Amino acid sequence: xxxxxxxxMHRIFQDYPGLxxxxxxxxxxxxxxxxxxxxxxxDLTETSPVERRxxxxxxxxxDDDEPLLLAIEAQGKKDPKKPASWAYYASYLxxxxxxxxxxLVVCQDRATAEWAARPVRFGPxxxxxxxxxxxxxxxxxxxxxxxxxxxxxxxxxxxxxxxTHATDPHIGPILKAMTSVLQDTPEAVADPIIELIAQxxxxxxxxxxxxxxxxxxxxxxxxxISEEIRDEGRAxxxxxxxxxxxxxxxxxxSDDDRRRIMSCDDLDVLGRWFDRAxxxxxxxxxxxx
Length: 289
Prior knowledge:
Strand content: 5-15%
Oligomer: single chain
Order of helices and strands: HHEEEHEHEEEHHHHHHHHH
Shape: elongated
Strand order of the largest sheet: 1-2-3-4-7
Radius of gyration: 24 Å
Number of domains: 3
Distance between the termini: 37 Å
């Protein structure tokens, strides 16, 4: 199943397609900034029943060179079958569009990124027919941006940086720098970024930190995910208040009851439990229908 973090790692290039030239420059390779961009169909399926889809496919127009086909793949783990698929993508795109293809692989852990970056040779060892060399962006080479001024200079690059560092135990300052800048960013720009980072962090522990920061620092934004984040923040506080009342009143709370209260995200239910916790003699009375 495709995860939200997988989607965010490549969809950011659809929302901010000029980002590729800045990412490639960060990685030490100079691609001219595009003058126009076309999002192409990502379906690379042939007439045979084998279905092949690249995550994102862009056509980049520049002033300096001929158009470039940029295929972007989000890679969550090592997969020995992927290099052959990537080689197929490159050959297919060159044949179909008659334009030079480029492959960017985006990862969230260093081991996968280093694996994806290794040149892969196809053909006999004494004369390789094809050498695959993807460009890889991951936590090993994306900048750690904790300065709000640097975030403000390039919000798209800072967003990708936050997503690729999702597993960094010190991601707190990275996310805090983002919310510091987004406080003063127009809502039309900030909302997509809030959602991309929420999706990109997926189920990593950093996702909960991001949700708390959005709930506190960006409480005035109204996007779907930011509203969801704020609801989760209110639900967590309500759950903690219920437990605090019961503890203060000396009501015994089993581990199962504590988990039930903390896992509830329905504000209406939590409100009823809160009212009952004030007078209830047991958690059974709190939970009563």
